[in-house]
Amino acid sequence: MSNIYRDVNLSQVSESDIGKELKVSGWVENIRDHGGVSFIDLRDMYGVLQVVLRDAALLDGIHKEECICIEGIMEKRDEETYNPKLPTGTIELEAKKITILGKVYQQLPFEVMTSKEVREDVRLKYRYLDLRNEKVKDNILFRSQVISFLRSKMTEMGFVDIQTPILCASSPEGARDYIVPSRKYKGKFYALPQAPQQYKQLLMVSGIDKYFQIAPCFRDEDARADRSPGEFYQLDFEMSFATQEDVFRVGEEVLSATFEKFAPEGYTVTQAPYPVISYKQAMLEFGSDKPDLRNPLRIIDVTDFFQKCTFKPFIGKTVRAIKVHADMSKGFHEKLLKFATSIGMGGLGYLEVKEDLSYKGPIDKFIPDEMKKEFLELAGLEAGDTIFFMADKEEKAAFFAGQIRNELGEKLDLIEKNAYRFCYVNDFPMFERDPETKKIGFTHNPFSMPQGGLEALKTMDPLDILAYQYDIVCNGIELSSGAVRNHDMEIMVKAFEIAGYDEEVLKAKFGALYNAFQFGAPPHAGMAPGVDRMIMLLRNEENIREVIAFPMSGTAQDLMCGAPNEVTEQQLREVHIKVRD
C-alpha cells in the first residue's frame, strides 16, 4: 500500500535511486539561494537530504521548519559538491513539486540547529522544536535503545516484567509525596509512588520469584544536575530466596552488559565483580558514600598521630590527609586555599617532602623530630610528595577531605579518562539520630534487614547496627540503591519501634506488608538502578534533563504545557478541596 506523503524516509535513499522519481517528506532545515538555483536541506527523523530547486517559483512561500512534501527525480551531485558528513552526501533530489503539509505561522523562537546554545527555559517551553535538533533527538532515541536492551536483558535473565500501581497510599518515609485527592472518599488522598517498594515486596510474597519493571517514580524534590524534579525512571527488580551477593551478581551483569554495549567508543568499563566498599571505608578513603574511583587519590586518617604533636588546631579533632605527587606552584596553593575557604574550611595545612625526606611547610615545626620518620611511614611519603590536612569534627573532616580530593583530582588532571568505574557501597548504618530532634530514625530504607537480625535490635546500640543496604556508584554518581528486605514480622515491628513507630502505626501506614508478612514471606532482596542517570552517564551529559523527552524545569515546572496550573472551582469542589489564601 503506497503512502500519500512519501515513498521512502531519508535513511532509505541512496545512489541506487539515481534516476528514479521519488516523493519524500520532512522539515525545512535550511534554505540556500545561489542565484538561479536554490537548495533546501530537508530533514526527517532518519536523516537529511539536499533538494535542488532549478525553478525559483517552487520556493515561493516556503519557510524554515515548515513541514513539506517534495516530489522529484534523484540525481548524482557534482563531485566537488559532495558532503561527506551526510550518508546522502553524494545525491540530491531535483524538486518538481512541493506541497506544504504544515505551515509555520510565526517567527521561530530559536534556530533549531543551534538550540542547545539557547537558554534552557526557552528550550523547554518549545521542547517540540528543541527535539528537532539532531543531538537532542539522538539522546531520546538512544534512551529508547537502552531501555529496550534493559528489558531484553532482564527477561533473558529470567525476570518477569510486571507493572505496579501509580495511585497508591502515602508513606511517612522518604521524600515528599505527590498527593492526589479522592473524589469518592472525602478528605482522603492517593499518592504517586516514590518507588514500587511495597508492591514489589508483595509480589515476592505472592510467589513471583523474579520481578522487574522500568518503573516511573514520583518525588516532590528539588532539581539537581543529576536529579529531575517530579518524576524519574528506574530499572526496579526484586528476587526471592536471594542474598546481597545474589543481587550484586545481577546488578553487575545487567549494568556491565549495558555499559559495554552503549559506552562511547574507546571507553573502558569495570569488569565484574565490582569492588565492594563499606560505608565506613568510603567515608574515610573518599570522604563520600559516592566514591569516584577514576580519581587515584585516597584519604588517610592521621588523627591519632597528631594528638601526640603540638599543633593546637589539630588536637581534639578528626584529622584527615591526602598525599599528592605533583609539581604545584605557589599560585596553585593559593587557588586551593581559596577553594578550601569557599567550602567552609578555616585554612588548609600542608607539608612538602624534600629530597632528603625532611619537610617544608608551616606544620613541620609542630611535629617532634623523633616522630618525623614515623609520619613518613604512616603516610607512605616519598620525596616530591605534598600532603594536605583537613581537621574538624569527624563528619565535617570527611566532607572537607572529600571535596579537596575532588578538587585536586580535577585541577591536577588526575581523573582517569574514558572510563566507567563501578563499585558497590554497603554496610550502611540502619539508624541515625536527627540532629535537630535528637530522635533516632531510619537512615535509608526502613524495609531493610538489620545485620544481626532481632538479636542486634534487642542488644546493640541502634547507632551501631548496620543494615543489609547497598548502593551502586559509577564515576561518583549514585546509580542505584537496594537492600536485603526485612521479611520477618517480629524483626520489622522491633525495627520500627526503635525508629519511633509503634505497631499500630506500622499496621496503619504499611498495612499491606504487615498483613502479607503473616502468611509465609520468603527472604527477598533487590535494587533499582536509575535509568535517567545511566543514560546521562552514557551520553556524557552534565544535566539529566538532556536525556528526558519532556523534562520539568529546574523549578519543577512544565513550561511547555503550563504545569502546575490552576483548576476550576468545580474541579476543587469535586475532590472536596478549598484553597487557602
A few lines on this structure:
By secondary structure, this protein is an alpha+beta fold.
What are its keywords?
NA-bd_OB_tRNA, catalytic activity, acting on a protein, alpha+beta, BirA Bifunctional Protein, domain 2, single chain, globular, 581 residues, 5-stranded mixed β-barrel, transferase activity, 8-stranded mixed β-sheet, Gyrase A, domain 2, aspartate-tRNA ligase activity, OB fold (Dihydrolipoamide Acetyltransferase, E2P), 27% helix, ATP-binding, 3 domains
Task: Describe what this molecule looks like in 3D.
The protein has 581 residues and is α+β, with helices and mostly antiparallel strands. The protein has three domains: 15-102, Nucleic acid-binding proteins (OB fold (Dihydrolipoamide Acetyltransferase, E2P)); 114-268 and 527-581, Bira Bifunctional Protein, Domain 2 (BirA Bifunctional Protein, domain 2); 295-415, GAD-like domain (Gyrase A, domain 2), CATH 3.30.1360. The protein contains 16 helices and 24 strands. It has helices at residues 120-125, 127-130, 134-156, 197-205, 244-262, 279-285, 303-306, 330-342, 372-379, 394-411, 453-459, 489-498, 503-509, 511-516, 531-538, 569-574, and strands at residues 21-33, 38-44, 47-53, 67-76, 91-102, 160-161, 179-181, 189-191, 210-219, 230-240, 268-269, 276-278, 299-301, 318-325, 349-353, 359-360, 385-392, 419-420, 422-426, 431-433, 440-442, 469-474, 477-484, 524-527. Strands 6-9-10-24-23-22-19-12 form an eight-stranded mixed sheet, with helices on both faces. It has a five-stranded mixed barrel with strand order 1-2-3-5-4. Strand 2 (38-44) and strand 3 form a beta hairpin. The longest helix has 23 residues, at 134-156. The mean pLDDT is 94. One of its GO terms (biological process) is aspartyl-tRNA aminoacylation. Belongs to the class-II aminoacyl-tRNA synthetase family. Type 1 subfamily. Its main location: cytoplasm. ATP binds at residues 219-221, 478, 530-533. Keywords: Aminoacyl-tRNA synthetase, ATP-binding, Cytoplasm, Ligase, Nucleotide-binding, Protein biosynthesis.
